[in-house]
Amino acid sequence: MQAITTISETSVPIMKENIDTDQLIPKQFLKNILKTGYGKDLFYDWRYLPGGKLNPDFILNDPDRQAAQILVTGDNFGCGSSREHAVWALKDYGFKVVIAGGYSDIFYMNSTKNGFLAIILPEAERKILASAKPDEKITVDLPNQQVRYHDYSFDFDIDPLWKHKFINGLDDIDITLGYEKEIEDFEKKMPNFN
Amino acid sequence: MSQTMFDKIWDQHVITGEVGKPQLIYVDLQLLHEVTSPQAFEGLRENHRKVRRTDRNFATMDHNVPTVDIFNIKDAISRKQIQTLQENADEFGVRLAGMGSQDQGIVHVIGPQLGLTQPGMVIVCGDSHTATHGAFGSIAFGIGTSEVEHVLATQTIWQTKPKTMGIHVHGKLPHGVFAKDIIMGIIAQEGVAFGTGYAVEFYGDTIRNMSMEERMTLCNMAIEGGAKMGSVQPDQTTFDYVKGRKFAPKKFNQAVKYWQQFYTDDVSAFDDVMDFDVSKLAPFVSWGTNPGMSVPVDKPFPAIENDDDKKAYQYVGLKPGQTATQIPIGFVFFGSCTNGRLSDLKIAASVIKGHHIAKGVTALVVPGSRQIKERAEELGLDKIFKAAGCEWREPGCSACLGMNPDRVPAGVHCASTSNRNFEGRQGAGSRTHLASPAMVAAAAIHGHFIDIRKEAV
Fold first, then answer.
1. All structural domains of chain B
2. For A173, which of B15, B128, B150 is closest by C-beta distance?
3. Distance, CA of B408 to CA of A173 (rounded, Å)
4. pLDDT tens digits, one per residue of B151-172
5. B393 to chain A nearest CA, in Å?
6. What CATH number does residue A22 fall under?
7. Which GO MF terms does the UniProt record name (chain A) (predicted)?
8. Conformational region of residue B67, where left means phi above 0, alpha means psi within -120 to 50, and beta covers everything else
9. Model confidence at B38, in pLDDT bands (50, 70, 90)?
């Protein structure tokens, strides 16, 4: 997993609540057997007009925001289906960080598995970030758990274990295999009714 | 200190870690399907890892499968995903109920049907409707593909213990009102995120009087309220359901004794409690683009309060103040892991028997599994549906999510027994209206919803 520490990048605000994973990546794009290649289909139904042309009214298509790596959005982001393809699509598009009011539990867990930083900030602070112009950078400082923009500085919470994983780019399975003995002992004690 | 059922099951499965931090939890059963597993198996292969416990994993094919001419998958990418699961199951030694198999069906239908789903278990699957299995008094939740890979490799998962919420459901359900209406009513009242961060337990006299199939409907949609786990305490109804099934424990009485320890000591053990009286509940119908946008059938659609409402009304082509009886239904879908079980088909058939679906309506009936299909045919339900003008199909997820050929055309209003009315969920531009099987059956006959409590169907 790729490590993530501090980034200073431009952003895109999509301040809608309850953006579900069907919107992030519609089901017709879930048929791939790879983890990559989903970026072009991110927000497909909002991003493209019927016939496949780019929807000029959707902010992700703003020519001045094509290099954005930070997504600023509403509450309950990533609700609905468990599809990890939603995180893969956000990453493949080029986003490194999402800042929302909250996340569905499954989306949040998926983000931690992919080195995709999902930050929670209150609405008032997100509104300030959402006002960032296309060329203005937002700094996300994971070691200090801070989001900075102009003179603003917003602190965010993250579980120490997830933080450690992000900063060091650690793979979960390797960590868990370190508990092989504990898992074996557990299995020996399990009830068996067969 | 008093504990919830959830606490007791959780505590028994902790391998390492402290409460409040991610803990390593043992997984008794993982269910797999073709859409969220290929990258997980690929990850194992890349890292030269095996499946740790082939006896604790079970796979089937459901999301992509066609419901007619099932061995002829025309979509090349769907075919590839199905083939990939077949190859992965063979290579890694995972049990598979493949295409056409007697045990095949929607993953959340076959788990219980085969007796794989049992009380006291931790159950995961790469699908958010895994909450369904909580109906047996288990901890069951949806996970992402990286977690699927992790469970395949280690039979464990890192999870932070959620808070617990008890939902006290009480009162006698009025005639024409079902488990589906209870969960839709709760979500309409509390919103689509009230359960985020919580493991929900439904309890009370209404729940005790429910069949397992009703409890599954209820728990299935907990995720639509944000709760990735919904559950019901196991009781005699649960034990009777599990008994005699293919993978039920052989020493059954001993297992029951073990399962009986999983109950909530008292209400004070929950972090939060909610009260829901069903005695005056009406049938619910969703009007908008998330399951919280639902109203009782006899109430008008709400006023526009924000941008989300405005967008939803634009998308569905309806207006505030209208009622569900005014929605022109062009498509009807019976099926899904929410309402694709035998009792659901029986109820729908009882409403539809002797009638014909309205002119211009397309109606699909998709049993949740092959066994359900065969049982329904023994009971002659297929003949009732076909005589009414419905299409009787092979099992699968079908038009619940439109990944397979079954889709609702753009702009068409669909009365659906499924679980999600998101934009485009049933096909690009589709307009989904969630309701119970009886309500959907009545809508099929009339071409619009009716209040099944009042009108003779």
1. 5-259+267-275 (3.30.499.10), 284-446 (3.30.499.10)
2. B150
3. 41
4. 999 999 999 999 999 999 999 9
5. 21
6. 3.20.19.10
7. 3-isopropylmalate dehydratase activity
8. alpha
9. very high
